Amino acid sequence: MSGNAPTPLSAADPRRLGPYEIIGRLGQGGMGTVFLGRSPEGTPVAIKVIKPELAEAPEFRGRFRREAESARRVRRFTTAAVLDADPDGPNPYLVTEYVEGPTLSKMVARRGPMRPADLEQLALSVATALSAIHAAGIVHRDLTPANVLLSPVGPKVIDFGLARDFEGSGEFSRTARHAIGTPGYMAPEQILDSPVTSAADIFAWGAITIFAATGRAPFGEGRIEALLYRILYEPANIDGVPAELAPLVDAALQKEPERRPTAEALRAALMSGGDLVPGAAASAAGLAAPPASGREAGGEAGEGSRRRRGHLFSRAGRGPAAEEPPVTATPGSSPRSGPASVATGLLTPPPATTSRPPATTSRAPSTPGPTATPGPAATPGRTATPASPPPAPPGSAGPAARSGGPVSPPSRGPGAPRSQPPASPAPGGPPGAPLSPVPVASRGPEARSGAWSGPGGGPAPTVSRQAPPTSLTGGAGAAGGQPDEGHDGASQRPGRRKALLVIAGLVVLAVAAVTIPLAIGSGGGDGGGSAANRAELSTGLAQQAAAVRAGDPAKAKRLSLAAYRIAPTEAASAAMIASFTADSWAALPGSAAAYTGDALSADGRLAAATDNAGHLRLWDLSNPASPTQVADVPTSGAGAGPTAAGPRFLPAGGLVTGGETGHTWDLTDPHAPNLLAEVAPQVGQVVRLALSGNGKLLATTDMEQQIDLWDVSDPAKPRHLRPLRSTGLTTDVALSPDGRTLAIAGVGGTVSLRDITDPMNPVDRGQTAGGLVGQVNAVAFLPDGKHLVTGNDDATVRLWDVTDLANPKQVGQEWRGHKSGVLDVVPVGRTLVASTDASGALLGWDLGAGSSNPTPVSLDGQVAPRYAAADGGGKWLLSAPADASAGEVTLGSTDPAQLVKVACGTPANRMSATEWTSLITGLAYEDPCAGR
After folding, report:
1. Is residue 867 part of a domain?
2. What's the pLDDT tens digit per position in 318-363?
């Protein structure tokens, strides 16, 4: 296995394992660390070392031994061969063939969807690999784009040797319960804790084929519970899959495992170019996990052992006739709070029967008190999936429901029926589904996923905290009600409750311990007016705004403004920026010019821009509603040459500009900028500049290989410290806020990091990973100094952790949203990053709540490439055209309080009392623009 470039070993890493020399790290996974090793014959190998907490369990070691033995029986064909294993040593490990080449996920992220011919080769290779894996009695269970390597000899499947659900004893097992699988590529039976057979791998084959063909996730993006919901009840979006492959992908993504083809049937169909062999689907679910040994089948005593065994082995080999009904709530069963409730709320409706959307889609009326509309036809014994929030079950409708007002979900006390969440739109489907009412009496902590639900992702199911024994709206019958129809008592077994716990554990693990706002709460009796309740309601509305923004931006604007009116939470502030910054731009006065750079002072009261005619222009922004140009100063007469570049404000009221010769300026009187001194490198020009946070250290570059460091603590007497040389052509430089680290971006696709704690003796520390298609065009440190962002020629923005300069690490995935090479990246306040590209797009990326994979939002609608700058408080953005054509400098707001004025200038942005009542319960209508 491979897919990652090796990184240096840490002090704690082993240097030798058995006969294998350890020479580098390849990656970290859920079960352990993967190292690059060398065999006694000198052959490179990949060695997966199991986590100590897993290795401590004797049961795990036994299963590890059996799995390794089974994996060695897999024919090599298109897999990374398992070569060796040591299940008994102090550090159990598995040795596999080292395969050079990127993973499918990385290749698609870099270059986009695969060409049809390459896609067909991938589909055939993975189907062949699965055929070999299944023939050895193994189920992969975690087939994803990250587990397919694109080697020089073709695609290869990796990580099949340990892809089983090892569920040992001890605290680790009780808290982590590995329901193996990656959200977005898991089969429905994996989510439901039903018997997992080779058919689960076939489902994953269909999902990764969609990803390779289209570049998008098969079930969209967004919160983990939304992904699981879509997998269970909604069709995958196969638009964009070539016609030759679409029928096979459609067959592989059937919700019922017995309806999927076998790997061998897929391989044969791909080889022949024909249809699936009739009856091939019927046997797809036949291969379960390898049967337990005799000791496991009967040698272990005790109910606890039988329960643990049952999760993995007891249902192995059961055919479709033994399949259990869908998960349902058990009337009268012991209520469970916490994670189990999450899964219960998500898994109520039955799975859809095909992977294609129905021919017609019913839409719920846009009136208060949404009612259920018909969805796909129900299968016998199952309930049709609702296309909108369902009404309260019989016997649970309170007065509000009977009168057509907003209906809060019923409580989940003993004997109460389970409510169903609204179905989120299928990826690429209609985005305008009605939103669920948000009860204000919920009291969970604010929750945000690792990324907003983006285009195609659809809104996550809205799930509310409820207060037994009555509904939040006070309905008299909410605590009672009838059991779900179509489910008998035979399906209500402890094993199903266990399934809920498994799913809940998966949700908790995948969301990295971010609390999901769903549990049983008391309501508090405060009528929804407390600060905590208002904050939670505000956050919920902001998240709904993010979910619908791509499909219904007008609704997103109303939700964003209402959310901020209720409480100015972090989520609501981000929603205001996403919805209204694009409406806030205004041109600064002055003639058009071809600009070469722009800047905002830290206090946001002055703006500066330089142009290719050698002029410096200044604007007074003390009154943002009426900015004035206060200076237009030619710099060429001072020996700067025909072009000025890259202005940067100094903290003490000065300015630095570049050009053929750079200069420092005194701006005590902005109407009359006073030239102080030259910043003249011995070699080259001053094309790009970077300042430290305290404004005392300046770095300049000539865009060749020359970099110079300057002490500008006295702007009247800038002191040249020393020149530096980069290893290649330089495209941008950045200084950390503390002035101790210099980042140098270049055409080689990496960023070099130098420790300049002593500027006279800089030390090379490391560089970011390569692998970009093209160069790094822009680099900037975030305010914490521990992270930097890069704008790349491959149209991506990337976030890096540079806490350890010798080992910088990319955080999360590449940020995608630009259509052309990124020109500029600018931190805006603490949690927002703005980026521009060659096509003119200006995108915003919200890093609030620790998100490392944000969804892009458009911050401006211009179509010309531009530079961008931000003030120190993160309240303003400045934009200047960056191409040779003349244009205007414009100013936009990223201050939510200022954006309220922008929003309220358009009556359509106000949420009406009727819409408020249809979405919010327990809080009286508040005009979002009252008093403005």
Report:
1. yes
2. 333 333 333 333 333 333 333 333 333 333 343 333 343 333 333 3
**161 and 32, same structural domain?**
yes
pLDDT digits (tens, 9 = 90+) for 413-451: 333 333 333 333 333 333 333 333 444 433 333 333 333
**Whether residue 733 is found in the same domain as residue 721:** no
- Maximum Cα–Cα distance for the chain, whole Å? 94
Taking the C-alpha atoms of residue 590 and residue 71, their distance in angstroms, rounded to an integer, is 71
Count: domains in the chain: 3
Residue 752, domain CATH: 2.130.10.10
State the angle between helix axes of 570-580 and 553-566 in degrees (0 to 180), rounded to the nearest 10.
Answer: 140
Q: What is d(CA 528, CA 556) in angstroms, rounded to the nearest whole number?
A: 23
Residues 6+ apart with CB under 8 A from 655: 599, 608, 616, 647, 648, 649, 664, 665, 667, 673
Closest CA to 63 of 173, 143, 165: 165
- Catalytic sites, residue numbers: 142
501 contact partners, CB below 8 Å, separation of at least 6: 177, 339, 340, 343
Residue 592: CA atoms inside 13 Å, Cβ hemisphere, count? 8
Sign of CA dihedral 631, 632, 638, 640: positive
CB atoms within 10 A of CB 654: 20
- Domain residues for the domain of 626 are 595-725
Let me know whether 717 and 792 are in one domain.
no
Please identify, among 872, 888, 909, the residue that sits at the C-terminal boundary of a domain: 872
Measured CA to CA, the distance from residue 610 to residue 883 in angstroms comes to: 13
Q: Are residues 764 and 703 in the same domain?
A: no
Residue type at position 589: P
Indicate whether 454 belongs to any domain. Answer: no
The token pair at 684 is: 């080259």
Q: Are residues 757 and 668 in the same domain?
A: no
Nearest CA among 122, 107, 110 for reference residue 208: 122
Same domain, 176 and 87: yes
pTM above 0.70, yes or no: no
Token pair for residue 210?
């969609």
Could you say which of 275, 292, 314 is where a domain stops? Answer: 314
Residue 657: which of 683, 626, 691, 629 has the closest Cα?
691
809 is in an annotated binding site: no
CB-based contact 688:646 (threshold 8 Å)? yes
The predicted-structure confidence for 116-158, as pLDDT tens digits, reads as follows 989 999 999 999 989 988 888 888 888 999 889 888 778 988 8
